[in-house]
């Protein structure tokens, strides 16, 4: 499969061998328990918290794109907390991005601290401290929402030297944007709620790892705590992954156009998109990533101007989350994270570029 290009890999990821009279992607299996052999007991499927055919097919799909065995979870947070709690023990230290997904920091400052796990916060763009004594380094690149990127290969080498494990949150990039395991990371964690599935209709998370012992710990955690996604969500996610390459291509092209457009306006500041040659993230992003995702960030100066802009825009939905087929924008400070009041995370959808630029022009002009 790896010899094919991205579009082909996305379409065929996790599909079973063709069987005459059967669908390409078998429908969701709705079962908690399955029939057992009365004499020999459990076979491939016994109980859906531990074995599920629809979930296995999705895991095969994501695993094919990430390049390692994969476990899916009910949400990105279920996956990330499963990783943290199955790897970290009292007395351990974890390094987390200071500018990454804020619920992870909140979890570290609450539950992990109460369990006696120490957290070191490191800005994604660095500088990275001496990692001696750190058990796990979680990177998020590009970081959400500020879009700094970090050099996974270099940090993984330094972390391994210090005896630490390295996990990368691959939510924003997706496995078609970068493959952290190939760059030296031990684990990938991600939310599949965003661009991976891309239709804003499913919550999903996953953990991928090449080391069976490491992934085994996460699997035991999942088996015993039960944060699995349902059959229909797994099927919907798998169905959606077929178009990942197409969606990313349009989102990325839209982001390139939107970022250039915003840069040229003097009523918009702080434009960030790692694919812009003038962006501080560009040198590492262009060396490390296979494509840059459709998320752009910028500042409109005040909460009021963001509200006017979003009220005027016809093609930009005010919404959190990102990576979907519809263009959305989120004023992050409304959720209590530490961005400035006018900071906007803008997620380009798959609308036509010219329509989007015309809508943005009109909405910005009338919201000054
Ligand atoms: C959304 C997100 C998460 C959490 O995922 P959910 O599916 O919402 O639980 C984790 N990391 C990043 C970078 C995210 O954007």
From TrEMBL:
SUPFAM superfamilies: PLP-dependent transferases
Keywords: Lyase, Pyridoxal phosphate
One matching Pfam family: Cys_Met_Meta_PP
Cofactor dependence: pyridoxal 5'-phosphate
Superkingdom of source: Bacteria
A single MF term (Gene Ontology): pyridoxal phosphate binding
Residue ranges of the TM segments: none
GO cellular component: cytoplasm
Residues bearing the modification N6-(pyridoxal phosphate)lysine: 194
A single BP term in Gene Ontology: cysteine biosynthetic process via cystathionine
E.C. number: 4.4.1.1
PANTHER family: CYSTATHIONINE GAMMA-LYASE-RELATED, TRANS-SULFURATION ENZYME FAMILY MEMBER
Family: Belongs to the trans-sulfuration enzymes family.
Protein name: Cystathionine gamma-lyase
Organism in which the protein naturally occurs: Actinoplanes aureus
